[in-house]
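R.M. (postdoc): so does anyone remember the format we settled on? I'll just put the structure tokens first.
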């Protein structure tokens, strides 16, 4: 007990001192206590307001983050859908096509198998008024040094509709002349090879670079007018002044003398086309000899029911220049070059066989030396059949017989298959 009392003694002494200190200090009055409580309450309310504001900012931040994420997702979807829409729109406005033909020729001059042409078309419609067209061709299958083939751009032009009846174009395009020059896909004509008149006189396939207009003057009456690069014919050798050999194919073509071409075409009756073309070039030697040249061509292409008829006449007249070292179109007999053909045909179904058959006869006469008095005229008879299992594929067989004035006949037959798409 004594030791316990000894342990409590110091504690009691300390408590006594504290109590005496508190008694000595001034005790707050009720008014002071109320002010202290109000001050503390204001601090508590201020802290609560700050906390609420902080929570609102956090909520708004979270909401903005959520909204941003949603917008990003929507934007991504729109970009993806928009990209797909643009791609789909581009594809819808872009066209791809082509044609090709394989020939087997068994003639007096020799036998030959040749994949004559492989052609691809590319076109694009920029809008309702502006379009692009092109044609890329590989001839004779194999291209390279010493090989027979060529790679050629036959068309690459932009066309603009001026209104509902007239359009303009510029670039590389086919000259508006003849029947075959602008439409020469294998299923569109008879015979394995293109007719010799439009190959040697017109001369198909013939393209130039420049600008032109086309349109409709009246219902069924259309026109074409072009200003283009021109011919540059050889001036010596066996092909001197031969029209076909003057094609430059717009490959760094000399353009000292341009060519002007106009055509009128009447299609007022379904299945009937009547047309006439004229071309003038001031100098077909591009400044070397000053030899002007004029082409006149007229044709009829008729298809009425099963019956068809094609007929064409073409003639070149070359000015006679003063002899320069013996060089002159008249001296070569080529101041006049002309030809014509007529081709009746019959087409229709045959029994239960799918597709259509067609039979034709064609008589061709042409002369690239018509200005000479010697025997240079060439005649060729063709007869054959076409079979179209579908409108875009054709199988062909024709026989040819020549009766040339110089005795260089080349008789035999030709087989071919062609397509377009």
């Amino acid at each position: 007990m004594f030791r316990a009392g000894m342990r409590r003694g110091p504690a009691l002494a300390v408590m006594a001192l504290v109590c005496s200190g508190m008694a000595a200090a001034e005790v707050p009055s009720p008014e002071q206590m109320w002010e202290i409580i109000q001050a503390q309450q204001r601090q508590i309310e201020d802290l609560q307001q700050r906390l609420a504001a902080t929570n609102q900012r956090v909520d708004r931040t979270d909401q903005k983050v959520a909204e941003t994420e949603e917008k990003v997702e929507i934007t991504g979807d729109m970009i993806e859908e928009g990209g797909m829409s643009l791609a789909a729109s581009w594809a819808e406005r872009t066209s791809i096509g082509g044609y090709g033909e394989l020939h087997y020729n068994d003639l007096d001059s020799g036998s030959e198998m040749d994949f004559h042409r492989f052609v691809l078309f590319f076109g694009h419609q920029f809008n309702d008024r502006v379009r692009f067209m092109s044609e890329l061709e590989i001839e004779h299958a194999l291209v390279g040094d010493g090989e027979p083939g060529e790679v050629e751009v036959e068309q690459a032009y932009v066309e603009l509709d001026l209104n509902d009846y007239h359009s303009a174009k510029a670039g590389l395009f086919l000259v508006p002349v003849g029947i075959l020059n602008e439409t020469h896909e294998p299923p569109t004509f008879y015979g394995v090879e293109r007719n010799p008149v439009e190959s040697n006189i017109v001369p198909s396939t013939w393209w130039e670079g420049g600008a032109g207009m086309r349109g409709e003057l009246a219902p069924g009456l259309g026109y074409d007018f072009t200003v283009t690069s021109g011919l540059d014919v050889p001036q010596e050798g066996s092909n001197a002044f031969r029209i076909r050999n003057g094609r430059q194919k717009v490959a760094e073509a000399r353009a000292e003398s341009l060519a002007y071409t106009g055509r009128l075409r009447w299609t007022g009756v379904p299945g009937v086309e009547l047309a006439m073309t004229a071309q003038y070039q001031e100098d077909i030697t591009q400044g070397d000899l000053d030899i002007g040249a004029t082409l006149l061509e007229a044709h009829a292409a008729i298809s009425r029911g099963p019956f068809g008829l094609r007929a064409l006449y073409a003639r070149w007249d070359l000015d006679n220049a003063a002899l320069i070292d013996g060089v002159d179109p008249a001296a070569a007999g080529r101041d006049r070059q002309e030809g014509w053909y007529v081709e009746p045909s019959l087409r229709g179904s045959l029994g239960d066989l799918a597709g259509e058959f067609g039979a034709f006869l064609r008589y061709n006469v042409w002369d690239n030396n018509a200005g000479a008095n010697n025997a240079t005229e060439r005649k060729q008879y063709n007869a054959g059949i076409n079979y179209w299992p579908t409108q875009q594929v054709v199988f062909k067989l024709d026989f040819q017989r020549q009766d040339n004035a110089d005795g260089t006949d080349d008789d035999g037959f030709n087989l071919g298959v062609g397509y377009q798409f």
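R.M.: ...and that's the designed sequence above, right after the tokens. Also worth knowing: Residues 1-25 have pLDDT under 50 and may be disordered. The chain has two domains: 61-92, 146-420.
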